[in-house]
UniProtKB/TrEMBL annotation:
Source organism of the structure: Actinophytocola xanthii
The protein, known as: Cytochrome
Family to which this protein belongs: Belongs to the cytochrome P450 family.
Record has Metal-binding as a keyword: yes
Alphabetized Pfam families for the sequence: p450 (PF00067)
Residue runs in coiled coils: none
Length: 401
């Protein structure tokens, strides 16, 4: 261990703006062994190398210690809700699981969803126009991706408020957690969400249709079908990943534009920049701040040897602001940035985000149409943040139109 500054999300103001602290960590030490037992990687070059190194994501490879204890505490006496999802499996399991849903998320398949996404956005914007002063998260950023993924899956009407509360708790399992009460809450959320998902699957078995959930139930490859637990895990992952991250993209991206009025006006004047604007907003304030890898053998990164069984956090949010890669404008919003698409917000390697094209579509349509529809759009109060370390996003964005 060194005596240099360590990653510390308890510093004042971190959840509102973590990027100043990330800069301090980058300047202190490239590859950092943290007192809590994990390793922290914050430079763009090191994060991209780590993500493409083919390391594990399975907790079973963790060495004995607090991180393995956390995984066991969450899972209890059986596999946790997400531990059987493609997000938490290595090849060949990851390859098999991903292949069952990849065809639904191709560029062509996602492009065909644009009319539906546009209709849903316009319906939300009509409600916002009627309200005058609203919370953008409640009126647009949350309902849009939730409706899209629900339609794609073909699920019955669901208690979206309850699902949102539970998924917000469950995603804390993607962070390093030391509080026993939080661990217990995560475990309870996992059990409740698994139960809700099993009910949805049972309904779909009785009501098959031309949708993703029916396809997953019926999917077979080389005589191999998803087990019941695997099916629950994939559906739950699609629900959480399909809306939690896109909520952050739309809300965080809009806040960034409203706080940078020259860029907002540029987007209004040149709506054809909407696609690149989404790439820049993904870079500037990543909807997913961290991802992790687990070493199965000693791994050398930036001249540091990380031992086998280590839990390594790749800080996507830090890499996306690393001035060593992005230059002196790393902390500036620039929707004309030519290389904005080189952000790591969707990860890299074989765990690159399956829903990247869908998130880009939803972000482009929602943010583009929002700013063009309301020329007087402005913040109407303080933005509040959700207090999450990983899926960090705005909990409330009061705006007036």
């Amino acid at each position: 261990m060194t005596d240099t500054l360590v990653f510390n999300p308890t510093v004042e103001g971190f959840f509102g703006d973590p990027y100043a602290h990330y800069r301090e960590v980058r300047d202190a030490e490239r590859v950092q062994e943290h007192p809590l037992g994990f390793w922290f990687v914050s430079h763009y070059a090191d994060v991209t190398q780590l993500l493409r190194a083919g390391l594990s994501v399975e907790d079973r490879h963790l060495a004995e210690g607090p991180l393995l204890d956390q995984a066991r505490a969450i899972a209890g006496d059986r596999a946790g809700a997400l531990s059987l999802s493609m997000l938490d499996r290595d090849p060949p399991d990851h390859t098999r699981l991903r292949s069952l849903v990849t065809k639904v998320f191709t560029q062509r398949a996602v492009a065909a969803l644009e009319p539906m996404v546009t209709r849903l956005v316009d319906e939300s914007l009509d409600r916002i126009a009627d309200g005058g002063s609203v919370d953008l998260v409640e009126e647009l950023a949350f309902p849009l991706p939730f409706a899209v993924i629900s339609t794609m899956l073909g699920t019955p009407p669901t208690d979206h408020v309850r699902l949102r509360e539970l998924s917000g708790t469950l995603v804390r399992s993607l962070e390093v957690v030391t509080d026993p009460e939080v661990l217990a809450a995560i475990r309870e959320a996992e059990v409740a969400l698994s139960g809700m998902t099993r009910e949805i699957i049972a309904w779909k078995r009785a009501n098959p249709a031309d949708d993703l959930l029916t396809a997953l139930i019926q999917a077979e490859q080389d005589g191999d079908k998803l087990s019941d637990d695997e099916l629950v895990a994939q559906v739950l992952l699609l629900y959480i990943a399909g809306h939690e991250t896109t909520v952050n993209l739309i809300s965080n991206g809009t806040v960034a534009l409203l706080r940078n009025p020259a860029q907002l006006e540029l987007l209004r004047a040149r709506p054809e920049l909407a696609g690149n604007a989404v790439e820049e907003l993904l870079r500037y304030d990543s909807p997913v701040q961290q991802t992790r890898r687990i070493t199965t053998a000693p791994h050398v990164l930036a001249d540091r040897e990380i031992p086998a069984g280590a839990f390594v956090i790749a800080c996507l949010g830090s890499a996306n602001r690393d001035e060593r890669y992005w230059g002196p404008t790393a902390d500036t919003v620039d929707i004309e940035r030519a290389d904005a698409h080189r952000h790591v917000s969707f990860g890299a390697g074989h765990h690159h985000c399956l829903g990247a094209a869908l998130a880009r579509l939803e972000g482009r349509v929602a943010i583009g149409r929002l700013v063009s529809r309301f020329p007087s759009l402005a913040l109407d109060g303080e933005v509040t943040w959700n207090g999450r370390l990983n899926l960090r996003g705005a909990a409330s964005v009061p705006v007036r139109v």
